[in-house]
Amino acid sequence: MPGSHPTSDLAGWSRAPFTGAGFTHDVYEKGTGPGVVLVPEIPGATPEVLALGDHLVERGFTVSIPSPFGEPGRPVSVGYVLGVMARLCVAAEFRAFATNARRPFADYLRALARDLASRTPGPGVGVIGMCFTGGFALAAAVDDAVVAPVLSQPSLPFPVTPARRVDPGLSRAEFDTVVARARNEGLCALGLRFTRDRAVPVERFATLRRHLGDAFEVIELDSAPGNEAGFGKNAHSVLTAELRETPGHPALAARERVVGFLRERLGPGSAA
């Protein structure tokens, strides 16, 4: 759509390797306050993802960005996206096509979340997943350290069959644990998608709504032909590529709701 989305770079981000569940990835960290794990979308920690991270830092959070794929800071290009996608589609760490799947990367995220929670104020941490990593935010919430999962356009498993379209992106045992946390502990999740996004089928959100009920808050941005905001038919990245710093812009409002959700769940330590 017209206009440009926010971008940023690696300035001010510290980098250190973190090992969990048998995997080691570099993690970029910045900020003070309650903790948020921001998991990149394909192709990695792009300038758009870093802009979202910087915004969260400015709003009073400690942000940790793991780098399980791609080259942090590298701009998006078609070749870059396709190259990363080709590797991820066959990576056992992510199991891109599997249904009812426990994905090893979720175990890594849970370990990272526990570590961040041990170093930051509040009752736990938030986890934001986007696109390829969207569902991992909910899978991370199997661990008590995660109290604010945000699923932005969760696309795994790739919705190429009816079974994959309804799959929530984690194993049944993991999902049952998350549902129990919602029922017994007040865990809530926030989901975001565009209405015409074929990569994030409405059936997947229906599954989450059916099991989580009011504990699953949904923001759906209209991307139908002729929509007022001018989103294209392929609109996908709610919090990055489709966002404009324009008052009243739907994706900007969605980002502000994400900040509000994190503040509500992580406690009063966040900056005003």
Automatic annotation (TrEMBL):
Transmembrane segments: none
UniProt domain Dienelactone hydrolase: residue ranges: 32-150
Keyword Secreted: no
GO MF annotations, alphabetized: hydrolase activity
InterPro entries with a match to the protein in the record: AB_hydrolase_fold (IPR029058), Dienelactn_hydro (IPR002925)
N-terminal signal peptide: none
Keywords of the record: Hydrolase
Identification of the protein by name: Dienelactone hydrolase family protein
